[in-house]
Design brief:
Pfam families: Lipase_3. InterPro entries: AB_hydrolase_fold, Fungal_lipase-type, Sec_MonoDiacylglyc_Lipase. This protein is of the alpha/beta class. It is built from 8 helices and 10 strands. The strands form 2 sheets. It has an 8-stranded mixed sheet, with helices on both faces. It has a two-stranded antiparallel ribbon with strand order 4-5.
């Protein structure tokens, strides 16, 4: 597995943050004037942005996390559902399956009624793949989990079409069958930040497992593939010790900027 470079991390993180904005002006970030297609959810709200430039072979699919009460409730659908319609051999979190299979309301003049989110994405990506472009999937929270599944489904239909998968604060989306059949573990980077509780969800050990390389940003360092039990233990210890950490002199020194320079 190649390393995730800093400029790549920063770019994907910025795009995941911007995905929550009502408008994303893609030309400000190096994409072509016509290099954006938006995929709406069942409510007609943007869920996925497909971004590309003329001078790059990389297309970036950015997937937003839960952003309305209905989608937040879907996170509770922790039973699993088979993904035969996506050409996958495994079962995934039923709520995430629903997000992928929900009807996508038209946004572009070429969009038609009756297509699922997955079908709409495939329709948009096919001509870009014919141009020789490769696809990077990135997403935050449930958007990261959905991105892994969509990337794997695309890789089955178009081998070697996926460049990498980078997720932020992603919950697990499947269990042992996913770990066995998921083809992109060597291209998947799962970024966890400090004590992010969502990265431990769903709270069903064994039934839900993570795939790919984990990068844990913690205490000013990057830890790779820290076991979940160890990471949870450190997190709990940090929660317990946090009130006492404010007593350290380093905290007082760090806050010197509150005082005037005189």
């Amino acid at each position: 597995m190649k390393k995730l470079k800093r400029y790549q991390y920063e770019r994907y993180a910025v795009l995941c943050n911007l995905a929550y904005s009502r408008v994303l002006k893609q030309t400000r970030y190096g994409f072509a004037p016509n290099g954006q297609r938006i995929i709406n959810n069942r409510f007609g709200k943007p869920m996925i942005r497909v971004l590309w430039g003329h001078d790059s072979d990389e297309v970036i699919v950015v997937i937003k996390g839960s952003h309305n009460p209905a989608d937040w409730m879907l996170n509770l659908a922790m039973w699993q559902k088979r993904c035969h319609q996506l050409g996958l051999e495994y079962s995934i979190h039923a709520g995430f399956y629903f997000l992928i299979s929900q009807e996508s309301m038209p946004h572009h003049k070429d969009d038609t009624l009756g297509q699922s989110v997955y079908e709409r994405l495939t329709t948009i990506l096919n001509p870009l793949l014919e141009q020789g472009k490769r696809i990077t999937f990135t997403g935050h929270s449930s958007g990261g989990a959905v991105g892994c599944v969509l990337a794997d489904a695309l890789e089955r239909k178009h081998p070697k079409s996926v460049k990498r998968v980078v997720t932020f604060g992603q919950p697990a989306f499947g269990g042992y069958s996913v770990r066995k059949y998921y083809r992109l573990a060597h291209k998947t980077y799962r970024v966890c930040c400090d004590l992010d509780v969502v990265t431990f969800l769903p709270p069903l050990p064994g039934l839900y497992l993570h795939m790919g390389k984990m990068l844990w940003l913690y205490n000013g360092r990057i830890y790779e593939n820290t076991p979940t039990v160890e990471r949870l233990g450190r997190s709990i210890a940090s929660w317990i010790m946090r009130p006492f950490s404010y007593h350290l002199m380093s905290k007082y020194i760090r806050n010197k900027d509150f005082f005037d320079e005189r």
